[in-house]
Design brief:
87 residues, alpha+beta, Histidine-containing Protein, Chain: A, four-stranded antiparallel beta sheet, 3 helices, 34% helix, globular
Length: 87
Amino acid sequence: MVSRKITVTNEQGLHMRPASIFSQAMTPFSCDISIFFKDKKYNAKSVMMLMSACIKRGAEIEIRCEGSDEEEAMNKAISLIEGGLED
């Protein structure tokens, strides 16, 4: 398992479009990918779960990946968050 804490930089947080971009990018990975925010766990492959988390700009989240391609998944997740989720 790998995990990393990161701050969300997207101006609008993980609203519909960025949440969709993120979940679609995570879906091809076979490992389990979770986001922890405010002591709750969210499935990072589910756009509805991500939107329900109400993650705003400046929020610190923890991304956890567990499985055979966990390193690749983590690298992609961090790249997306640091890049502002193309928004």
